[in-house]
Write a structure and sequence with these properties.
Layout (H helix, E strand, L loop, with lengths): L1 E7 L6 H17 L6 E8 L1 H12 L7 E5 L18 E9 H10 L4 H16 L7 H18 L5
Parallel strand pairs: 1-2, 2-4
Antiparallel strand pairs: 3-4
């Protein structure tokens, strides 16, 4: 089970969008065989705010659609977190630009809900350790995204 914590800095995201993300990522967690208790934070920002995050943490001074921060990812010199079975595992944070999501929905000719779901799932898979830096990784991650979106019923129209 995943406890989701939403923060809407844009004050434009409705509860149906949060429910879509909750249902989709819970479905994805089941397909990824996540067992136990988890926590995940999802923040909605505008382009200006996500650009600041992108510049600070990724060195890219431009807006982007989604950024994820996996808490369980270890950097050099870090020590793994020891989990108590009673305590949830904090997966990390997903940040989504609502402005970019709306633009991309129009650009890709599908609904805002589909784009929002795609971006949330993309960030979620990153938090779980998927990546797309290399061709093989990209095929695996994007293939998994398509499988999950299709089985959930959130395909491109």
């Amino acid at each position: 089970m995943i406890d989701f914590y939403f923060q809407d800095e844009t004050e434009t995201v409705d509860q149906s969008s949060e429910k879509l993300i909750t249902d989709l990522l819970s479905h994805a967690a089941e397909l990824e065989n996540l067992k136990g208790l988890y926590e995940l934070s999802i923040t909605f920002m505008d382009d200006e705010a996500i650009q600041a995050v992108n510049a600070e943490f990724r060195g890219k001074d431009r807006p982007t659609d989604v950024i994820s921060f996996a808490l369980e990812e270890l950097s050099e010199g870090e020590v793994a977190i020891v989990h108590d079975n009673e305590m949830p595992i904090v997966l990390g944070d997903i940040i989504i630009s609502i402005e970019t999501a709306k633009r991309q929905a129009v650009e890709y000719n599908h609904t805002f809900q589909r784009e929002l779901g795609f971006l949330a799932l993309h960030g979620f898979l990153h938090v779980l350790g998927y990546d797309h830096m290399e061709d093989e990784e990209e095929r695996k991650m994007f293939g998994r995204q398509t499988e999950i979106l299709t089985s959930f019923g959130l395909e491109r129209q």
